[in-house]
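Z., the sequence and structure:
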Amino acid sequence: MGKIAFVYPGQGAQKFEMGKDFYDTFPTAKRIFDKADEILDISVTDLCFKEDERLHQTAYTQAALVTTCLAITEVLKEKGIYPDMTAGLSLGEYAAIATAGGISIENAIKTVRERGIYMEEAVPGGQGAMAAVLGMAVAQIEKVLSTIEGAYIANYNCPGQIVITGMKESVDKACEALKEAGCKRCLPLKVSGPFHSPYLRGAGEKLGVFMEEVEFIPLQIPYVTNVTAEPVENIQETRELLVRQVSSSVRWIQSVERMIAEGVDTFVEIGPGKTLAGFIKKINPDVKVINISQVADLDTFTEDWDVAG
């Protein structure tokens, strides 16, 4: 039997009522949500379980999504299901580090709350932009962007889907150039800033100052960082990597390929939506991919686990 990896989605996966059935069903999950309410100056349960538009604002989204992912993860652990390795897409990396044992759940939630605030404040609203480039090879995209100042690759999501970022004028210009060069589509994303670009370095620096007071603890298993797509086994590297991660490209394709090279053949996406499952299947259709966003998903998975495990 190969290795299992827990993977966590990034901002954009959030939706109303995410995690509610876990909250209602498992005291372990309820405890995580209640703890988030206690340690933050916002009600995470209200954000997640009610129709609150703040859920889609960066300053609020990040704490809500990480809380949900970790609440579900704790239920899995309670049932004796543990990963050999973890990874997360951008924001999801914090859930990955917590699951790998490198930071407490409380500190992970506190840190992403600050991260969301710093990222939202980094660039005035409307000045930055991001867009998904569909149907074009990475090398071609990189070649086009090399001719446009202020536009960068934010996410290497999967073959055929790369996200670009930067100032709005530069991203608009890049989209036109990419269409002329043959990309199928260039879709603007509903985001509040030029995430994973050099314009977020200031946010990363503020995060670094905040994290000086955050305790990181030795990892129990490795996690794969977005920054280098390499497994991290020494927690002392984590602060610097998380500072860099805010303004550097998310190397998700490379991260998944590295986990497969490390022997992972089963990926469990934990949290709302099936975005990562779709990416992973496009990166390598031969691996097994499972999504756990609702209690029904967990029931199906644990039945299979009892047989396979």
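The chain has two domains: 3-123+198-308, 128-188. The mean pLDDT is 95.

Let me know what you think.
H.
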